[in-house]
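Q: What would this chain look like folded?
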Amino acid sequence: MFGFRYLKSRPTDYVMLYRGGRIRRQGVGLAGFVYAPFATAAAVPTDARDEIFAVEAMTVDYQTITIQGLISYRIKDAAVAGTRQDFSINLATGAHTAEPMKQIVERLRAIAQTACRDALVRSTLDAALNKSDDLSQVIMRGIADDKRLAADGIGVDRVLVLSLKPTPEIRKALEAKLREELLRQADAAMFERRRAATTDEHDLKLRDEKNKRELAETALANEQALEDERRKVAEAKAETLKAEAGADAEALRIRLKPWTEISAQHISAMAFKDWANRDTGLTSLSLGGDALERLANQLTAAKE
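A: My prediction, written as structure tokens:
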């Protein structure tokens, strides 16, 4: 109304109000009425921002690599940045009339691309694909060496390299090479497993044979020990029987010794006497050759 506009800014915007070519008010998050016909304003964002970038670089073996990463940046000195970049806004809408943040991002991408090209120009493809951490440090050094960024009040907090990708054809070739390598490793692992299984089976058989041999040797030793015990028992029995036989013979010799002192005639007479005292009748008489010879000798001796 009557040319006045109510200006409302974000808490992270550093606002500078100009009138007559001079700064009348400035600060973070300013709000209030301004007279639009004679006033201009600039809003410098001071919040930290993350920007995804993608640049291309060529290696020493003429292979193109696409580097994708993230840059975290912010405007550290808003007052200086407002004088070096067009941050003017439309008082009616509050939007920037130009694209200052886009220009800053393009500058950061250009620095990142230059740093990546300088870093990868002396590296082969295989070496470059493993340099994500090194590239982050190289880009940070390249940004730190750019005096203009610091003079414009722009600061970069960190750089992350998210991926390194070759061209689709080279990627397929690398995938095929890696696939073949993985297949060879799988075949080698399978062969190693089979060899280990064969070795384990052979060792198991050897242990089984060793156990059987040890059991057989133990059984044989036990049999030999049992036979030794049996032999000792048999020898002891034989000694016992021999001693008993000797004792019996000695006892018999002692019992028969009185009979050796008696003549044969007395023995025969005693036998006939014993027979006569029995109640049984004589039905048969058996005389051996020795007895008949002895009887004949006695009869002959009696006649003479």
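The chain has two domains: 4-166, 175-275.
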